[in-house]
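input
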Amino acid sequence: MSNGRLVGLLTTTTVSRWLAAQARHELVVLTDHSVGDALKHLEHGGNWRVVARSTLLADVVDAFDVAKAAGKRLDAVLVTNSGRPTEALIGIITIHDMPKILRALSASGRNRSAV
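output
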């Protein structure tokens, strides 16, 4: 967060890119670096979305599908109370949550269920 606003998503890919860049110059001392240092090595922007807690689970599934169809990767859907990136984060949904979400949607007999 910067000035109370979400600015990026730190992923293992980003950390790996940052470590590779650092290792070219010096022995990496993690206590000398911040998350912001690693975020300078984001592989691409737009790999996350912010949604409200009232967003339907089917819409979250659709967001992952739309990103994939566009040839992009959606790493996470970040959940805040009203869907504003200036609010406190109350949850994170990743692709690894999809099986559980799809089972819940199937078990409910409905295609739509609130986050």
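quick obs: The two ends are 23 Å apart (CA to CA).
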